[in-house]
User: Fold DEAD-box ATP-dependent RNA helicase RhpA from Sphingomicrobium lutaoense.
Amino acid sequence: MTFADLGLSDELLRAVGDAGYDTPTPIQKGAITPTLMGKDLIGIAQTGTGKTASFVLPMIDILAEGRSRARMPRSLILEPTRELAAQVAENFEKYGKYHPGLSMALLIGGVQMGDQIKQLEKGVDVLIATPGRLLDLFERGKILLNGCDLLVIDEADRMLDMGFIPDIESICQKLPRNRQTLLFSATMPPPIKKLADQFLTDPKTVEVARAASTNENIEQRLVKVSPRDKRSALREILRDESTETAIVFCNKKVTVRELATSLKRSKFRIGQIQGDMDQSNRIAELDRFKSGEINILVASDVAARGLDIKGVSTVVNYDVPWQPDDYVHRIGRTGRAGATGVAYTLATPSDAEAIEAIEKLIGQMIGKTGKTPAGDAADAKDKPAKPKKTDMAEKKPAAKPKKTRAQSEERDEKPRRSREEPPKKKDSPARAREAVDDDWNGPVPSFLSIGV
Assistant:
């Protein structure tokens, strides 16, 4: 099957050919034709499968006819992050170049609101937005949604993770009831199923991969390390000959900053993106990575989804993700568009429960494909460490620290005994008082308590 068999226009087929594509991916085969027919759709597909083009291509043909009006976008695409929204905008520019009348606006945070309002006032066919900025402008009266006939909810499970579901429900209620709705997600947890049942009408479901499955082109490796050996294990992975370009994921923004600084001192060509950076700096770092000026990008989960960067050979989970679903999306930055890739996960003993949750979600064990040189080195470090600890334990009885510890324990115990003894002292004089005259108010001699 070719793109021509899917019913796309000649102009669109020409743009697709210019981009170097001739055969649609499974999600594109299943989603494009129903979308052109005006049906609601649920698309379940992992990252790197051509999911974005599966709704961008038919939307361009659908919107080729008709005219936009001021502040009333004809279609709306909701994205969880600014980076992913910008990615979708690039797809519209690439595939819509032979549709010069098609207008588009990007509505995201971190950008001057005034410029976005000017675009909306001219009228747009396609509005790509993050939920927060869209609702902000709606409440200010700068945008009307009653003319929107096509809604795309992209990365729905990520929306769930980021707490956007109430915002999406609010937006859906502001749109016309008689509209076409497309929902795409890599996984299908119950809240997303509930959302689909609520706002989609008799949708066609296209599932090209089992929910929460990982790309077969990605070799997954688990590297067991101690917390203090994580950086040295990471450096060894990054120095490996097979690591041409890499994205290193951390759970916290502060870890991103500290790790990027450390790797820069080790002479790596490094960049970083995390939530505290403004939009212009994040885009600049991504451009440096795409151009090859840097070959390693340290990122928080703000970049875990939707970034379609060609040629990423390696993904490293420096921190095991808190949410199992994030593992699927992180490693999906490599092995894209049929290419192969390697995904390392550095796991400390405290990560055992999180690893178990991930393996349960993806339905397979991580690390069956073998170990990396870094993993072997980390294991080699762990093995001699155990005898050393044993030797130290054997020597401890004769060592000073042991005496000091014993002395400290004695000191800890003595106050406890003294705290227990005072009640006994109080009891003895009390009994003695019973034997003396009630008129005596002075101190009770200690010999009076003997034998009491």
